[in-house]
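Need fresh eyes. Consider my entry:
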Amino acid sequence: MVEYLDQLIANLSLWWGLGLFFLAAALEYVVPPFPGDTITLLGGVYAVRGHHPWPLMFGVVVAGSVLGALINYQVGHWLGARFEQHPGKPFFGITHAQLEGLQARMRRRGPWLLIINRFLPGIRGLIFVAAGAAHMPRVNALFFGMLSAMAHTALVLTLGATVGGNLDRLVELMNRYQRGALLLVGIALGIALIRVLLKRQARAT
């Protein structure tokens, strides 16, 4: 897949290539299985090759991430409004009481989750859905999301730059990064699940 993406981007003009990186960064939030990190890593390679200037590459990836975050935020905001209009009806298996619990957690921990969201593959988009459902200020949510996107984009482009034009090393770095990130997310979710189970057990006793 990486070789195919490499050939595809190589055959595009500068602006079409930048547009592809912008779209990939946005889709990674809206469609989590989309390989946005892979394309961003390729962006580092192309920046080193001189095909795409670093500042433009960095800017379009961050902008795409913010757009994707905004879309998810608006979806969450719509869901929150829908619950408020029909408080007695569950939606997508979520009850109003569960939504209120989510809103309370987002108000306590939301800014920290938004700051690290870009480093949480698979669930980064859901964090902005939760922020929208909790009616966090849109400007604040997108500001924290932008800071996270800037840090993540700088890291991923740097990883891509370290391999130069070596796609085999790029694939290896990409796999290591994704495995490490998923491991950390899994550990965090496991700890959160254990805490929830312990609290329920304490209430029951």
Remarks:
- The mean pLDDT is 77.
- Residues 167-204 form the longest helix (38 residues).
